[in-house]
């Protein structure tokens, strides 16, 4: 038994680099409402990500809620069941009806082939997710949106820094949202952003996240309070100085996993195509029938050894009680999402995961892979990893 290893561990900026920012906040006594660090982080992120405008938010869920408001989405929205619940919850909170489309088994993202058959006169938007930071088929999705006059809002919560053919995928669709929650690649403890292509839209979003205030006595919309505060913005600014190193570390860990797991029967993983600069936000593996134990058995066994993997995404959003009555939520209409959610396991990956811990995780997966379900691993002499 070793120490606890969780699926992720938050990226923390060095305290000594954060302190001067805190001192400045204490001096200025500006804690929130679009202070200097808020503005600085919006500009720094826009430059770093290669996008036009960034609107910071208190969290990603509020960013999603507000994006739907900003685009005045109504009626039905076609989305994926294979995501974190916030994706669909923000539709319900806007009085919208989620319509679930099945996913592609290779990218885990909404299958563009399944979108058109779900469009009705009530459909006004598509809300895909770049699951694990893997880019959606953005060209096919845009083509459908253009033909039917639909908005596209990307839940890009996992897709910080991801590029396709040298271009940020955050520029795709009408709006994209990011999450800066502690568990994400880049974090501000809690936080999020809307990526937006034009300054008028940014203005509208900025009103909406601050109660709709357009001046001291002018309210132009029924806005919400979704502002990021100065302490979090400062945390983000310090974090930015270390993000390239963090992404490089993730890539190295990802590639090392691929090497070490390459010959394990029944365990397969995702390889990013040549033209994608991926962020290695997760290490999802598919545990299929040729692996001797089930995904859930592997998950439990790793847990017994203090390795806390996560079944992202199981259960499917469409199976929760507030969604399962929907016609599109029926499991027989979502066969790929159903199967994937039964076989997926996300292994620990974060910038300071040590080789030693990674070796321990891989060794256990190999051990369980070498035995049958009703034998206990300790009763067998297993091959040590070279
Ligand atoms: C994390 C996450 C969110 C929610 O973001 P918060 O910042 O936690 O509110 C939304 N969608 C997806 C896919 C996520 O992973």
TrEMBL record:
GO terms for biological process: polysaccharide biosynthetic process. Gene3D superfamilies: Type I PLP-dependent aspartate aminotransferase-like (Major domain) (3.40.640.10). InterPro entries: DegT/StrS_aminotransferase (IPR000653), PyrdxlP-dep_Trfase (IPR015424), PyrdxlP-dep_Trfase_major (IPR015421). The keyword Transferase applies. The active site is at 184 (proton acceptor). GO terms for molecular function: pyridoxal phosphate binding; transaminase activity. Keywords: Aminotransferase, Pyridoxal phosphate, Transferase. The modification N6-(pyridoxal phosphate)lysine is found at residue 184. Belongs to the DegT/DnrJ/EryC1 family. This is DegT/DnrJ/EryC1/StrS family aminotransferase. It comes from Silvania confinis.
């Amino acid at each position: 038994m070793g120490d606890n290893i969780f699926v992720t561990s938050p990226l923390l900026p060095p305290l000594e680099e954060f302190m001067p920012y805190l001192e400045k906040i204490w001096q200025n006594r500006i804690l929130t409402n679009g202070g200097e660090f808020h503005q600085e982080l919006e500009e720094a992120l826009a430059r770093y990500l290669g996008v036009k405008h960034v609107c910071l938010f208190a969290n990603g869920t509020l960013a999603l809620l507000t994006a739907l408001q900003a685009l005045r989405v109504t009626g039905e929205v076609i989305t994926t069941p294979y995501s974190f619940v916030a994706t669909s919850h923000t539709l319900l909170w806007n009085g919208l009806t989620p319509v679930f489309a099945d996913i592609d088994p290779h990218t885990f993202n909404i299958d563009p082939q399944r979108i058109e058959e779900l469009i009705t006169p009530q459909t006004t938007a598509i809300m895909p997710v770049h699951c694990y930071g893997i880019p959606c088929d953005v060209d096919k999705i845009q083509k459908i949106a253009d033909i039917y006059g639909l908005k596209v809002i990307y839940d890009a919560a996992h897709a910080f820094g991801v590029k396709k053919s040298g271009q940020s995928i955050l520029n795709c669709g009408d709006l994209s949202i990011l999450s800066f929650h502690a568990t994400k690649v880049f974090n501000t403890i809690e936080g999020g952003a809307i990526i937006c292509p034009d300054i008028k839209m940014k203005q509208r979003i900025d009103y909406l996240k601050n109660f709709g205030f357009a001046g001291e006595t002018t309210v132009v919309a029924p806005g919400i309070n979704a502002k990021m505060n100065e302490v979090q913005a400062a945390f983000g600014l310090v974090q930015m100085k270390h993000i390239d190193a963090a992404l490089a570390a993730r890539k190295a860990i990802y590639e090392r996993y691929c090497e070490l797991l390459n010959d394990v029967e029944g365990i397969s993983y995702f390889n990013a195509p040549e033209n994608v600069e991926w962020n290695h936000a997760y290490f999802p593996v598919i545990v299929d029938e040729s692996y001797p134990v089930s995904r859930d058995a592997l998950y439990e066994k790793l847990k017994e050894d203090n390795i806390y993997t996560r079944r992202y995404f199981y259960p499917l959003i469409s199976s929760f009680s507030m969604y399962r009555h929907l016609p599109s939520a029926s499991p027989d209409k979502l066969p790929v999402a159903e199967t994937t959610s039964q076989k997926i396991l996300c292994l620990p990956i974060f910038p300071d995961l040590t080789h030693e811990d990674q070796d321990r995780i891989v060794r256990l997966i190999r051990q369980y892979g070498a035995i049958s379900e009703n034998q206990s691993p300790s009763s067998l002499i297993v091959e040590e990893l070279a």
